[in-house]
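quick one, 256 residues, struct below
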Amino acid sequence: MRKDIDDALRDWPYDPDAGGVIARQVRTKDGRSVLQVRQELGVLQMETDGRPDGDRPHGFRTYLDYLRHCAADRAARPGKAGPPWQMSDDQYPEVDREIVQYYQRRLAWLALHRYDRMLADAEHSVALLDFVRRHCDDAEYIASHERFRGLILFHKAQARAAMALERHKPDEAVDAVREGVASIQQHHGDWLREHEDDDETPAPALMDQLQRLEKEIRRSFDVRTTLREQLDEAVAHEDYERAARLRDQIRSRGPA
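---
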């Protein structure tokens, strides 16, 4: 039985001038759908469901699920009142591994324009960072990941905007971008308060990219004022009847 990947490399040559991630989604012999990313020295293959590496940490779908189980199990034990459950040092590398894997798969989904899957992976990564903040007592370790929260929030906004445009809803795309800018701005402000003058995050550049995207969407689709912007204006002018109508309209659109 051959174990080399010569045929795959020959049929899918690496193009150094392609720019960005070169990805494809294929079926395996047993019928699974997998993602492949062409790299200079070979092919990276990831599962499309669960963990990108296909692992089930301690029998759970993801390592985040396992960590949530650990925290919930501690909280459910009788007579265990006290400080919340904390992560142990040996769990840090596993968290790092899951964050990197989901980042790689997000980029592959982006390259394939599968924005729904990209959004789901970004939301998983945000949830993992949130868990670390709540259950880790190592400030340096928390900071090492919080530096990149802005990038994950950027990917969320990017995916939500693209999904809205696919539905021919440019006004919702603008709202998604604006919400992304606000969330990154909030994160950046929190970072500066916690780390004083340390500005080692990509947040400002990411906000600039989203603001340029907003302008491009408005110009291309002639979006002047979105429902959320009208809602903000109604609230500012204390026109609560109009604000209620606008909230109903926004709610009727369903989740972005």
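DSSP finds ten helices and three strands in the chain.
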